[in-house]
Amino acid sequence: MHLNDIAVRIEKLSERYAEIHGVTRSAEWALLKLTEEVGELTQAHLTATGQSKDRGLSTEEQERVVASELGDVLGMCLVYASQLGINPETAIAEKWFPHEQGPSGLSD
Predict the structure, then answer these.
(1) 27 near 81, Cβ under 8 Å?
(2) Exposed/middle/buried for residue 84 (C-beta within 10 Å: 0-12, 13-18, 19+)
(3) H or E segment to which residue 45 belongs
(4) DSSP 3-state assignment of 28?
(5) Is 14 exposed, middle or buried, given 0-12, 13-18 or 19+ CB atoms closer than 10 A?
């Protein structure tokens, strides 16, 4: 499955979420949700790496929470891209793949 195919599926889920919860979706909303999800990923990472209380979860459960939160972050990145009309495959290819040519292509 290609990233754009995943983005389309997630966009449909996001639309359904907004309908159910009465949310007005926008680029700002998607960026704020992305920020929220990064915070949740950070919390899960701290817990899984012993830098926060274990919250009563086993090591395996903590790893599943990290993976789940990463899925939320990636999903919200795709929703944000959709809100801005950005093709995620193109954005990644144009930003990352030129660096395959060697260190002279590195930039921020």
Answers:
(1) no
(2) exposed
(3) helix 27-48
(4) helix
(5) buried
Per-residue pLDDT tens for 7-65? 999 999 999 999 999 999 999 999 999 999 999 999 999 999 999 988 899 999 999 99
* Residue 85, token pair as written in the block: 């009309």
SS3 102: coil
- Determine which helix (DSSP H) or strand (DSSP E) holds 63, and give its type and residue range: helix 59-84
pTM, two decimal places: 0.89
Count how many domains the chain has: 1
pLDDT of amino acid 103: 66
Question: At 65, which CATH number?
Answer: 1.10.287.1080
Contacts of 44 (CB under 8 A, 6+ apart): 62, 65, 66, 68, 69
* pLDDT, position 108: 58
86: amino acid identity, one letter: I
